[in-house]
Amino acid sequence: MILVEKYIFKSERLGFRNWSAGDLDDFAGMNADQDVMEHFPSTLNLQQTAELIGRLQDHYATNGYTYFATEILETGELIGFIGLAHHDYDSEFNPATDIGWRLKKSAWGNGYATEGAKRCLEFAFDELKLKKVIAICTIQNKKSEAVMIKIGMTKKGEFEHPKLKEFPDYARCMWYEIEPKAKPD
Questions:
Q1: What distance in Å separates the CA atoms of residue 185 and residue 174, rounded to the nearest whole number?
Q2: Is 26 exposed, middle or buried (0-12, 13-18, 19+ CB in 10 A)?
Q3: Count of structural domains, the chain
Q4: Which domain holds residue 142?
């Protein structure tokens, strides 16, 4: 019997993998939580979450990366996603690869977003050979902004998100950027 490693890569405490149909219930529960979705126009129901999983799987098949299903290695518990996504909506920084995260409340405050984002940046620069990675969030999302700063990103500006025009409370966003560090000769 050949064992296939389910993780694409790991950090010290986390495993990163593509999505599966078995993730639906846990991910839907998280996406229905108003606290988790505080900085989004609405929560997501079961059908919307299933559609999101399909888009994330397709994104991985097309690009070789996605907002990865993220698990705690010790327990195998799905805690949400941390990963990368290609963006091409109209903005001064696109097309670009975005780094993002969404974790369930029980995972908050443990440093998982920072640890996972750092590992995803290593993957982006060392494996995918990307020249830059961006991150965006609403101007109210101070927790995500704190992670962006902790992982070494630099604030580049603010913008009106074109996909959020119908949601004025969420449309004003900030964007950060990071490039790979030069390796010594």
A1: 35
A2: middle
A3: 1
A4: 9-178
Low-confidence ranges of the chain (pLDDT < 50): 1-3
Supply the mean pLDDT for the chain: 94
Task: Determine the Cα–Cα distance for residues 91 and 156; give it in Å rounded to an integer.
Answer: 12
The verdict on residue 183 lying in a domain is no
In this predicted structure, what is the pLDDT of residue 1?
46
Contact between residue 40 and residue 107 where contact means Cβ atoms under 8 Å apart: no
Among 177, 137, 174, smallest CA distance to 158 is for 174
Cα–Cα distance, 183 to 164 (Å, whole number): 39
Q: How many other CB atoms sit within 10 Å of the CB of residue 97?
A: 19
Per the domain annotation, does 49 fall within a domain? yes
The runs of H, that is alpha helices, within 123-182 are: 142-150, 168-171
The rounded distance, in Å, linking the Cα atoms of 85 and 66 is 5
Q: What is the domain-level CATH number for residue 44?
A: 3.40.630.30
For position 5, what pLDDT does the model report?
72
Q: Check: pTM over 0.85? Answer yes or no.
A: yes
CA distances in angstroms from 137 to 39, 71, 140, listed in the order given: 8, 23, 8
In a domain, 3, yes or no: no
Residue 1 counted as domain residue: no
Place of tokens 């991985």: 60
4 bridge partner residues: none
Say if residues 134 and 121 touch (Cβ distance below 8 Å): no
> 100: how many CB neighbours lie within 10 A of its CB?
20
